[in-house]
Amino acid sequence: MDSTASNLSGRRSLDARKVVGPKQIFATRVAFFVTGLGVSAWAPLVPFAKSRLMVDDATLGMLILCLGGGSVVSMPVCHQIIRRIGCRAVILLGVGLLATALPLLAFASSIPSMAVSLMLFGAAIGFLDVAINVHALLVEKGTGKVLMSGFHGFFSVGGIVGSVIGSGLLSFGVQPLLVACTMAIGAAALAASAGKSMLAESMRGAGGVGFALPHGAVVAMGLIGLCVFLVEGAMLDWSALFLTVTKAFPERLGGLGYTGFALAMAIGRLLGDVLARYLKPSVIVGIGGVCGAIGIALALIAPSGALAIAGFLLTGAGCANIVPVLFSAVGRQKAMEPGAAVAALTTMGYAGALAGPAAVGFVSHAVGLSAAFALLGGLLLAAAVGGWLLFNDSPA
């Protein structure tokens, strides 16, 4: 049975190469954009959810862990679902779950209902994160072009657009439930419009278990990804506090730190495919990690908040293309079935994004926020060294 499934999967993969063209590239960009849009739609709703539930910060933090739990549970098994029903179906399923969960997040009025809604939202993110990256690998292989960084750039753009639209509507007094429904309908409509051009195929190779532990080069890729995702998660939750506490920056402008980081990352990813055509993966990861660490160092020694934001811009530019390079490489490695490898890399990376804010909080409480950010710089240097060694020693 496994041999038959493998042969069928191989034929589907070969057939995919005959139909991959501009429409499939555009559909992949839409899938990444929709995922970024949906993920960012939750952030503006958090304060309203806290007030509606009348919970303290600790309880809210525990609830948000349900989101991470839903993602971490869904990601490792997603590749098996993709093998059975294909990328297109899983992407559309993930968007459907996302569109269902968003209104629930704006409506849930009890802790149990919010916990279930967050788990559903997290599961949707988990399915989408794995499926869109598998789809991106299929499109890269089918076209023979380097496209991964640009795809991830559309995720970043979607996140920025979602945050701006959500925050803008709420600032004009639109009710959170209506905002959530608007975002859900928009995401579903975009996905549906591009769905017919998405690939129904799965990755070549069979893999017979629901969860595959990472091994071989995938472990190293996962650890590098964990470091970068950890920095991204920490920047999201702590950059504003860093500016206001250590640089005496005005609170109303504290969000500019992450805005600069996110914009630099989005621009870097949109330009990343050009870099990937001329630079080796070892160079992109190595230089990217070093630039990111230099940006953190600049933020630490900066005498003003404005210069610290410049450091965060450099960090975002440095981090921009590390993760896309890892996802491209994980499709070429031979240690694991590609779909399972994507799931493993995504799970490890997301674990870093979840652990990052908590780790910064613990270190900050023990030795100060500046020391915690110095640790982030150290992680980026470790990622740079790891990437340089991995890609110079491996054909991936």
List keywords for this structure.
mainly alpha, single chain, Growth Hormone, Chain: A, disordered N terminus, 2 domains, 396 residues, globular
Topology at a glance:
Layout: H1 2-19, H2 22-41, H3 46-53, H4 57-85, H5 87-107, H6 111-143, H7 148-171, H8 176-195, H9 217-246, H10 256-270, H11 272-278, H12 281-301, H13 305-319, H14 322-330, H15 338-367, H16 369-393
Helix pairs in contact: 1-6, 2-5, 2-6, 2-7, 2-8, 4-5, 4-6, 4-15, 5-6, 5-8, 6-15, 7-8, 7-10, 7-14, 9-10, 9-13, 9-14, 9-15, 9-16, 10-13, 12-13, 12-14, 12-16, 15-16
Describe this structure in words.
With 396 residues, this protein is mostly helical. Helices cover 82% and strands 0% of the residues. It folds into two domains: 2-195, MFS general substrate transporter like domains (Growth Hormone, Chain: A), CATH 1.20.1250.20; 217-393, Growth Hormone, Chain: A, CATH 1.20.1250.20. The chain is globular, with a radius of gyration of 20 Å.
Order of helices and strands: HHHHHHHHHHHHHHHH
Main sheet makeup: none
Please state the CA-atom Rg, rounded to the nearest Å. Answer: 20 Å
CATH topology term of the largest domain: Growth Hormone, Chain: A
State the share of residues found in helices, binned by percent: over 70%
End-to-end separation in angstroms reads: 30 Å
Mean pLDDT equals 85
State the helix count: 16
